[in-house]
Amino acid sequence: MRNTRARLDEKRDMNFRKLIVYQKAIELVALLLPMASEVPSGHREVRDQLRRSVLSIPLNIAEGVGKVTVGDRKKFYAIARGSAMECAACVDVLRILIGGDMGRFDGADELLDEVVRMLSTMSR
Questions:
Q1: Cβ contacts of residue 36 below 8 Å, gap of 6+?
Q2: Which CATH number do you get for residue 12?
Q3: In terms of residue numbers, what domain contains 83?
Q4: Total domain count for the chain?
C-alpha cells in the first residue's frame, strides 16, 4: 500500500506545469508584468495590485494541484479564478491610466476570458 501511495505522489509532483490553464496563466504574467511598469508613479497601488493578482493566478493553480482532497483543490482553483477576475479589473484600469494602443490589451482580455472559463469549470 505504501509503495502505491508513493508512486501516486510522484506522479502528481509538478504536473501543474502540464495544465493548459497554468500555461495560459504564465502567459498572462509575461504579458501583464511589463505593462504594470508603465503605470504612472502616482498610481502605485494599481501597479502593485496588478502584480499581486496576476502572480496569484498560477501560484494558486500550482498550490491547488498539490492538495490531496478534491475540495481543497477546488478551493484553490476558485481563489485563482477570483484573482483572474481582479486582474481583469486591473486591466480595465490600465486602459485608462496608460492608454495608448487599446489593441494591446486584447491579448490580456482573451487570455483572462480563457483562464476564468477553465477555472470556473475546475472549481465546480
A1: 47, 50, 51, 54
A2: 1.20.1440.60
A3: 2-122
A4: 1
CA atoms within 13 A on the CB side of 1: 0
Rounded Cα–Cα distance for residues 62 and 46 (Å): 25
Q: What are the residues whose beta carbons fall under 8 Å from the beta carbon of 82, sequence distance 6 or more?
A: none
Measured in whole angstroms, how far is the alpha carbon of residue 107 from the centre of its chain?
Answer: 14
Helical spans, DSSP H, in the chain? 2-12, 20-36, 44-65, 70-98, 106-122
Whole-structure pTM value = 0.88
User: Is the per-residue pLDDT at 91 higher than 70?
Assistant: yes
Res. 102: pLDDT tops 60:
yes
Q: Residue 56 and residue 74: Cα distance in Å, rounded?
A: 15
Q: Are 59 and 76 in contact (CB under 8 A)?
A: no
